[in-house]
Design a protein that fits this description.
By secondary structure, the chain is α/β, with parallel strands linked by helices. Helix content is 17%, strand content 32%. Strands 1, 2, 4, 10, 11, 12, 13, 14, 15, 16 and 17 form an eleven-stranded mixed β-sheet that branches. The chain has a six-stranded mixed β-sheet with strand order 3-5-6-7-8-9. The radius of gyration is 19 Å and the shape is globular.
Length: 302
């Protein structure tokens, strides 16, 4: 059996890893942002304001808003010039120290990401489809562990919030990345952008340090609604077994077009799929419910 996060000791905690406040360009204060997510049943968030000179290079301090059953991880969205297409970089860094040094005048995106990684942050390529980030740019972020595969704000802003193609292209070529779904919430009055995407992290405790360690280890999945209650892979028999909240489809993909697929004419809560033809030495699972809401596992390698 392949060991997966669903086998790990601990509990599941729902969180959002990309959010903004009035400390940069959001419309709610840090206290209000934390309150919204806490009241909506989230266990944690990372408030990732834009780390730019015009905003005072904020690592927004959300520690005062931690309560029983709710915590925060310090972070920021980092920016530097410039991508291969000439745009400013957008780099998500969760777990930054409060005294992270401001971006240097001549600092590049890859160097800034490397500094964040060395500081212990969980670094992701933020919404690559939104600004057509080149694959070579993603690969230049040495030490980045994730690709933001779905982003609520980007989806509402220009319809380019889905970046799952980046994940599949890069992992099919042997690169290892996690898949995170986020809100990138700014609390826009005209574009609903909060409490729509999240990660569900397996951790022993609800505290910033073990949550961050679980992110680094890939002990989580991402969702817009469906929950994964259990999943096992038996590589000897080439079977994947999964238990979920009600869904209409389960898809297991690897490299190329071959897949294990179950499309049901009714809601199901468990499935067993033959994955003998899944190629590339890895697989990942996508679920969809009757409303079209999805959940994504991280790729698991064998």
């Amino acid at each position: 059996m392949k060991s997966l996060p669903f086998d790990k000791p601990g509990h599941w905690f729902r969180g959002n890893l990309h959010t903004h406040s009035t400390a940069s360009d959001g419309s709610k204060t840090p206290a209000e942002v934390c309150s919204v997510y806490r009241r909506r049943g989230y266990s944690f968030i990372s408030l990732t304001d834009h780390f730019q000179e015009k905003h005072g290079f904020p690592i927004t301090d959300t520690r005062p808003y931690r309560k029983d059953g709710f915590t925060t991880i310090l972070g920021a969205e980092l920016h530097a010039p410039k991508t291969s297409l000439g745009d400013p970089w957008h780099i998500l860094a969760v777990g930054l120290p409060a005294d992270f040094t401001p971006t240097g005048r001549r600092e590049t995106g890859p160097h800034l990401a490397s500094r964040a990684v060395k500081a212990g942050a969980y670094v992701a390529a933020a919404h690559p489809a939104w600004y057509d980030l080149a694959d070579r740019d993603v690969l230049s972020l040495r030490g980045a562990k994730a690709i933001e595969v779905f982003n609520s704000t980007c989806n509402a802003y220009n319809g380019k919030g889905n970046s799952i193609g980046y994940l599949d292209r890069l992992i099919s070529q042997g690169h290892h990345y996690h898949a995170i779904a986020t809100d990138d919430a700014h609390f826009s009055p005209v574009r609903p952008d909060h409490c729509q995407n999240w990660v569900v992290v397996r951790s022993r405790t609800l505290a910033p340090e073990p949550l961050l360690a679980a992110l680094h280890a890939g002990h989580f999945y991402s969702s817009q609604g469906p929950e994964i209650l259990g999943m096992k892979v038996n590589w000897r028999s080439k079977k994947l077994s999964i238990r979920t909240t009600p869904v209409r489809s389960v898809v297991v993909t690897g490299r190329g077009s071959k897949a294990g697929v179950l499309n049901a004419d009714r809601e199901i809560t468990k499935a067993e799929l033959d994955i003998s033809h899944v190629r590339g030495g890895y697989a990942r699972v996508t679920l969809a419910d009757k409303r079209g809401r999805k959940a994504w596992t991280n790729p698991f390698w064998f």
